[in-house]
Amino acid sequence: MSRTERGTPPRAATRGTWRLAAGLMGPAFVASIAYVDPGNVAANLTAGARYGYLLVWVLVIANAMAMLIQYQSAKLGIVTGRTLPELLSQRLSPGGRRLFWLQAEVVALATDLAEVVGGAIALQLLFRVPLPIGAVIVGAVSLGILAIQDHRTQQRFELAIIGLLTVITIGFLAGLVVSPPSPAGVAAGLVPHFEGPDTLLLAASMLGATVMPHAIYVHSALSRDRHRADPHTHVPATALARLLHGTRLDVLLALGVAGVVNVGMLLLAASTLGGKGGTDTIEGAHAAIADALGPLVGTVFAVGLLASGLASSAVGSYAGATIMDGLLQRRIPVVLRRTITLVPSALLLSLGVDPTLSLVVSQVVLSFGIPFALVPLIRLTSERRLVGAFVSSPVLKAASWASAGLVIALNLALLWLTFVPMA
Fold first, then answer.
1. What is the Cα 234 distance to its own chain's centre?
2. Whole-prediction pTM value?
């Protein structure tokens, strides 16, 4: 008998459904931080400043893919009670596990590079802190954020990250209020096309910044830890269905916010920075934004960048620990891991490497790491023996494989254009 047949008003039933869904939200918001990290800022500002609205379509497609992929990852963790790295570890030989972990660790280091460098740039813009010292500060603060995360206090960690996401959203979208984009330009940018090899490189960078490999790994752990405190306890199918319903809303809302922020950054660059010299770096873009829209907007943008670096650095470190624990069954202290992963970023900044270029290149590295996370995820969520009645539908499976195919094709084209001499 339905709730209405038992006398519960439909409106009350709807409120109860939304309250239940709201109580299940949180893990996707943590994972979504990976989609608004400083690497996104560099890639999106560069694309908008150089090519205007040309690559808006890349962000729209990438965000749709991100929603699909993150839901699959969360579902895997909830239904199986195990993380994606743990499931991969069970299916790989000892040598295969180490090789898989090695490529995943390279991806994690590229992720950390983007996050720490972006936060250091923000500290320099706001307080004139030297970049290497800023990198150390970002690492230390992100460690403090990580300190409140464990399976007993995950909701506090989620609330802290959601608070930073709010700051990020305001910081990166405030400029659009002062400098709205061209509707005709946005419409033209929704038509898929490229304009030479450089736009393909930027597209790969934007895709790598939007569909993040470490977010695919970590979302399965976040959802498992939040919804299944004891992964060995049997959960009825009806309870799993309710969890997955709330998870779908969690993913749609969190990734929807991240998608709006990403598109907003490109639109701001296209409407404000197009045709101005030196705006294809974060520092140059910040200066141009402050000059065109006022110092207040420039400061808000820098604060958003700082929040992005701090939040994404904490989430990235958590993802790296999840990958190592799942694939190698080894845990190292968070302080030690944070210190080790901080070294490459601080070293690059000390050597004077262009920070914005390092951010864009790091996103290309991430793009090449996507298939290693995405293909196993699709295969595992398609195994009825593993996920039972929650196996991916033919439509969902087809969309997932199409997403993987698009990423792989884009990377192959990028390799060809980069290393094969043009005729």
1. 31
2. 0.90
